[in-house]
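Tokens in:
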């Protein structure tokens, strides 16, 4: 699922195009353009996964978590689309009034795969959310994506989100990373 092997780095031009795609995605998400995001930036065979963060001792040789282990998110396209639809109803009380969210996407690295139209893209993120008068939260981590070239743009086929924090103090994670 998330073990597509990264090959050679992409060209500078393709890296630029992928970076612009990520910045456009961040703008859509922070502007709450969720319907546009899911309709144009997300592939129908999406797997969106955020495993539980584990801190292990060096001597712990258990394998890394897989999508079959406990996760915060382990969603397919329909589940993500349902979350988007719910957000758009206004019935998500934690998002009324809507949070102000800012995405900082950095350290974008892109690699070819065995398929000409798919790329492994790794990036770091900082997501800042402000809600109400005093509530705020920040989430820092990295993403490993499988991005597919579709027409003149790209679509997200796989996303593994890894938070740096073992415990989050946020009241909910009703945001996309």
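Residues out:
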């Amino acid at each position: 699922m998330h073990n597509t092997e990264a090959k050679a780095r992409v060209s500078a031009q393709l890296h630029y195009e992928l970076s612009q795609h990520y910045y456009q995605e961040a703008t859509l998400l922070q502007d709450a353009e969720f319907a546009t995001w899911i309709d144009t930036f997300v592939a129908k065979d999406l797997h969106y996964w955020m495993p539980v963060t584990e801190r292990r001792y060096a001597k712990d040789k258990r394998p890394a978590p897989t999508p079959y282990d406990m996760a915060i998110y382990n969603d397919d396209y329909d589940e993500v689309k349902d979350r988007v639809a719910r957000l758009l109803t206004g019935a998500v009380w934690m998002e009324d009034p809507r949070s102000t969210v800012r995405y900082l996407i950095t350290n974008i690295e892109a690699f070819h795969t065995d398929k000409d139209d798919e790329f492994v893209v790794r990036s770091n993120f900082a997501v800042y959310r402000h809600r109400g008068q005093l509530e705020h939260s920040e989430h820092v981590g990295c993403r490993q994506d499988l991005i597919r070239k579709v027409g003149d743009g790209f679509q997200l086929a796989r996303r593994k989100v890894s938070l740096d924090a073992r415990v989050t103090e946020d009241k909910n994670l009703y945001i996309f990373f």
